[in-house]
Amino acid sequence: MQLALTILVDGLSYASWLFIVALGLTLVFGVLKILNIAHGSFYALGAYAAASVVAWFSGSGASPSLSLLAMLLAAIAVAILTAPLTERGLLRFYYGRDEVLLVLVTYAMFLMMEDITKLIWGANPYYVSEPYALFGNIDIGRQSYVGYDLFLVVLAVVVGLAVWWGLNRTRAGKIVTAVIHSPEIASSMGIKVSRVYMVSFAVGIFLAALGGAFTAPMISVQPGVSVGVIIISFAVVIIGGLGSIEGAAIGAIIVGLARALAVHIMPVAELFSVYLVMALVLVFRPEGLFQRIQARKI
Amino acid sequence: MSFNSTRLLRLCAAAAVGLCAMTAMAQETFKIGIVSFLSGQAAESFGIPAVNGAKVLINAFNKGQAPAPYNKIGIGGLQIEVVYVDEAGGATKQVQELRNLYERDKVDVVVGYVGSGDCLAVAPVAEELKKFLILYDCGTPRIFEENNFKYVFRTASHAAMDNVSMVRYLKARKIPVNVYSMINQDYAWGQDSRKDFMLSMANLYPNAKPAVDQLPKFGAGQYGTEISALMSQPADLIHSSLWGGDLQAFILQSGPRGMFKKSQVVLTAADHVLPGLGNKVPDGTIIGARGAYGLMAPPSPLNTWWWELYSKANNVYPVQAPYRMAQSLMGLKLAAEKAMQANKGQKPSMDQMMTALRGSEWMSPAGKIRMALGNGQQAIQDTAIGRTKWSEEKKLVMIEDIQYFDAECVNPPPSVKTEDWLKSGFAGAKCK
């Protein structure tokens, strides 16, 4: 019982930050049909920005609890500063071209951003562990967890619900849905598709940066943090179905639980477990768990 | 005195030729290719500090500002020229980069490689090209235990001594261990460290039993689940060879959960995270540095000079990677100068330099380096283990209760494979 509880908590904790990042990835794909390899780089930018902003907050003598707000602002700043530049300045020139070309363009972005972050922040690690202690420790069964880990679960739920509500219960969401179904018809109805693309891309980038910003207190922020996250995020969205919010949520939980189960029961199978689940899903549901089968346009 | 125009012309010609030769001599340099991680996950902890160390040291060499016996300008009067190459990108890329360094950049020697996989990939290529290669950092014992190289050298001990010295330290301090758990990265370095630690424990703690054995992937970053697994089974000791960002994240995440209070944590390669993490490193953690490096370096005028040189230029004290780079370049400099002397002051050939380096000894900031294994091409060196203690006054993690281990006590004897030596119960080890 204790083991099951530990696996559940560990799995959900791991799934929380992963969901936030994967949600951005799936949103960008759903609207713009871009498999954004550079998504992990925006995660890294969020982490670096949060590290800088929180350090500045701490230095100014502000209350430690405000560091959470600082991290949120850092993620927003990353999205505002980088998303329009990237989408309007680069990606839009490749719309309508082969999707593989867009993947290559985002891969080039990923390589460039790795160096850009190093040029801005250098190679030395940044630590922002102050927020990690904000919620103290919480005992669950015989395990003691850092409250911040569980706070991330709450944050992930809030973010997920907010995005779902925004897409399904607001006028802006309906416009985005219309663009997803047919950019041509949406455009003929007077919708500025390019603006929808830019805003959707910015939201996707914001989610990546948010994931990075709120993960920063738990890790050492340094070159290379973008690599691992993009691989595991792809596994999540493939399991859940590209472009599906529910899929990203379920995919993240499945990955989190599969990994936690393997770490506790058979540690050598940690990575294998995640990709085994992905392979099984692809065998039985090649389109992912939540993506509807679509008629092919001829 | 009669004027002889023909003679004057000849004198002028001879002077011109002489001047040309002098210019050529003045322009001749000693060219070194330095390969280390300049990007990616190993850059911050190893690659860039090592390159920073190379830069300040070579600058000091070129100005003749290093203390004796390193006080000749450059290498035997030749200015040292360096080509830096990023080690990131995988073994295949490194093989091509190595060829470029020799064939395009015409370097006299390549000094490089942090990753064991990269070392294993490039060593046979240098051998095939018959070019001088010095491995300065990577830890795998397989380089010389599974090969008989002529052109490849390694100027630092391989990884076996890290775990042997750690277990010897535990035994010397009478730290009771009935059950121990481990967390090591799931690649050559982590798996070798795990095996060496278990074999060393079997020698000195025959009744100790391994419990949790975690092998997260390199660069995992998130260790919440592994920490739960480690804490779910009581263990007297938790061993880890994690390094860089992985180690930093592990300490940041496990410290607040009380792991360091429940078990004695031993980290075999942790010195490089101390300056950055500061008081996040729990007191009493037993750490190694893969040599007597940084805060554990034995006091000497050479170490004091090196410490100040590096600290002044980089605003942080040197840790293991710059130390290993320094000992590599110092060994190369002395060998090349010795070969130069034997070559009547002329720039020595590659073979002459290799002959001089093979089996040689030299003093480094971390103590004496001896090319004692692998037919004189693999170094051994003394090492040290100690405990962390945060100094509020200095705002630094200090290391106390340091114990030094002789090289022959923690390294296998010549011609004995590491695994065989560990299984033999450290047969032939010479400990004081």
Question: Overview of this structure, please?
Answer:
The complex is a heterodimer of chains A (298) and B (432). By secondary structure, chain A is mainly alpha-helical. Chain A has one domain (2-224). Chain A has helices at residues 2-32, 39-59, 66-89, 99-121, 147-168, 171-181, 183-188, 193-215, 225-240, 245-265, 270-284, and strands spanning 137-140, 143-146. In chain A, strands 1-2 form a two-stranded antiparallel ribbon. In chain A, a hairpin with a 2-residue loop joins strand 1 and strand 2 (143-146). In chain A, helix 1 packs antiparallel against helix 10 and helix 9 (225-240) packs parallel to helix 11 (270-284). The radius of gyration of chain A is 19 Å and the shape is globular. The model of chain A has no long low-confidence stretch (mean pLDDT 91). Chain B has 432 residues and is α/β, with parallel strands linked by helices. Chain B has 2 domains: 25-157 and 298-380, Rossmann fold (3-Layer(aba) Sandwich), CATH 3.40.50.2300; 160-289 and 382-423, Response regulator (Rossmann fold, 3-Layer(aba) Sandwich), CATH 3.40.50.2300. Helices cover 44% and strands 19% of the residues of chain B. Chain B has 16 helices and 15 strands. Chain B has helices spanning 5-27, 43-63, 91-103, 116-129, 142-145, 160-172, 188-204, 224-232, 244-254, 259-262, 274-277, 301-314, 320-342, 350-357, 407-410, 418-423, and strands at residues 29-36, 79-86, 109-112, 133-135, 152-154, 179-183, 209-214, 237-240, 264-267, 286-288, 361-364, 367-373, 378-381, 383-391, 396-405. In chain B, the strands form 3 sheets. In chain B, strands 7-6-8-9-10-14-15 form a 7-stranded mixed sheet. A 5-stranded parallel sheet of chain B has the order 2-1-3-4-5, with helices on both faces. A 3-stranded antiparallel sheet of chain B has the order 11-12-13, with helices on one face. In chain B, strand 11 and strand 12 form a beta hairpin. The radius of gyration of chain B is 24 Å and the shape is globular. The termini of chain B are far apart. The chains are: A mainly alpha (298), B alpha/beta (432). The interface between A and B is large, with 46 and 38 residues.
